[in-house]
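testing teh design pipeline on a random one, pls ignore if ur not involved
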């Protein structure tokens, strides 16, 4: 998805720790983005605009200057205002002035002209609330229900690893209610008026998400229909864990992982080496490195530096050693132990490095939809895909869908000559699949290139493989 800020699965400070030694500008303490806010000069334009043909365009804030528009078909553009007041839209995350060029009215006018159609910003039923999460921490939340007085499904939005305030930047909170699906969104602890401190402790975050479900039901009252959890990236660990602690009607996970963060790091290293042309013999040796690095990281260095020293000595002269990257392995290998030791305490955010979600997924009876990105460079999908398909075949209520040609965030992309990817927006059908699952627990529509890889139990009647 075209997020205001890219999601990553494990933004532990260890990922960037080693970079401090060589480039202070690259250093970022995990959770530093909790203070990001929309640009107040353009925040007055944020909202959902109903167009003359009955469709909509959402205008969302960016954490720096500018806005982002998006539509149900996944198309998206970044908007900046020129000196003469004209809005300029660039395609997806590119710098190319291409596609629709929306024009907004003055602040307070609540109007837009999009691709030749006039539109007006619509009002929504919003209830702001403070509720209690793990350990008594007070969290800021918001319920947005569809128009009317009847019951409605509600998605409780679970964060990824970003720290930024979801009350500002969550992308579903306006267009889902306008499409008949309520949303409960809350600011992650430590951001947006929520108490506490940023953490990547999945146990704590799952308790917060479970508390959000309870609060969403309370606020919605008789209007609460199907209530479930939805989120991307790190939410793949947190949302099912929360569903094991409180009754929900569904779980939707976008571009998440069904194995541990340490296994993710090992796969990232292997993915990078494969891309450089190295074969199975090198991948097996690289496993020694990721095993040693995993033990070090998971213990917060308590196991000592001997393992790191050993793999540096064993493989440091190998021709492939310089191609070892991953999320943090390559950087830590190339930092001195003194450099790592000096900055390590700043970056401990309680990440649940060894958490294996399989026991939870194996025992959860809640219907789940997993939507995977086929070419995910942050959450390599192969092992997750196979584990989920196996669980579905064993009778777990898991449906697996995958979009080919998409990267983390379920973004379509273009690739530069140096291999760098730039988002072009989301694939057609992705947003609709999420909304349909929240409404009915079925995939029965047209979801573009999305392929259903597995269905289970009662869901088989409502989806077809290879759609």
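output:
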């Amino acid at each position: 998805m075209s997020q205001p800020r890219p999601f990553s699965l494990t933004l532990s400070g260890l990922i960037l720790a080693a970079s401090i030694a060589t480039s202070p500008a690259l250093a970022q303490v995990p959770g530093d983005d909790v203070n990001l806010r929309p640009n107040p000069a353009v925040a007055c334009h944020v909202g959902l605009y109903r167009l003359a043909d009955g469709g909509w365009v959402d205008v969302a804030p960016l954490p720096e200057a500018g806005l982002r528009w998006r539509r149900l078909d996944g198309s998206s553009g970044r908007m900046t205002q020129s000196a003469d007041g004209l809005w300029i839209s660039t395609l997806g995350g590119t710098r190319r002035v291409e596609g629709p060029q929306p024009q907004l009215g003055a602040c307070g006018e609540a109007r837009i002209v999009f691709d030749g159609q006039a539109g007006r910003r619509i009002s929504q039923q919003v209830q702001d609330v403070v509720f209690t999460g793990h350990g008594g921490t007070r969290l800021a939340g918001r319920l947005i229900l569809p128009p009317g007085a009847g019951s409605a499904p509600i998605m409780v939005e679970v964060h990824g690893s970003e720290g930024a305030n979801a009350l500002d930047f969550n992308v579903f909170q306006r267009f889902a209610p306008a499409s008949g699906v309520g949303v409960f969104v809350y600011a992650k602890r430590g951001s947006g008026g929520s108490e506490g401190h940023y953490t990547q402790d999945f146990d704590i975050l799952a308790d917060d998400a479970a508390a959000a479900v309870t609060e969403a039901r309370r606020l919605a009252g008789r209007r609460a229909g199907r209530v479930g959890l939805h989120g991307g990236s790190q939410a793949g660990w947190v949302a099912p864990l929360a569903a094991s602690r409180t009754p929900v009607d569904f779980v939707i996970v976008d571009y998440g992982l069904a194995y541990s963060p340490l296994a993710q790091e090992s796969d990232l290293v292997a993915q990078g080496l494969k891309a450089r042309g190295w074969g199975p013999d090198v991948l097996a040796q690289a496993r020694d490195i990721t095993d040693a690095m995993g033990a070090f990281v998971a213990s917060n260095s308590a196991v000592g530096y001997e393992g790191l020293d050993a793999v540096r000595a064993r493989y440091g002269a190998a021709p492939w050693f310089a191609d070892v990257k991953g999320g943090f392995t390559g950087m830590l290998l190339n930092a001195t132990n003194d450099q790592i030791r000096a900055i390590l305490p700043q970056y401990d955010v309680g990440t649940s490095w060894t958490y294996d979600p399989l026991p939870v997924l194996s025992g959860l009876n809640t219907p789940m939809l997993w939507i995977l990105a086929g070419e995910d460079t942050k959450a390599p999908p192969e092992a997750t895909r196979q584990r989920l398909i196996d669980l579905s075949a064993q009778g777990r209520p898991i449906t697996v869908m995958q979009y080919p040609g998409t990267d983390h965030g379920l973004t379509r992309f273009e690739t530069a000559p140096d291999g760098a990817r730039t988002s072009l927006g989301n694939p057609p059908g992705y947003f609709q699949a999420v909304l349909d699952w929240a409404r009915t627990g079925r995939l029965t529509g047209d979801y573009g290139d999305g392929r259903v890889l597995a269905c289970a139990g009662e869901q088989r009647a409502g989806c077809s493989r290879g759609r």
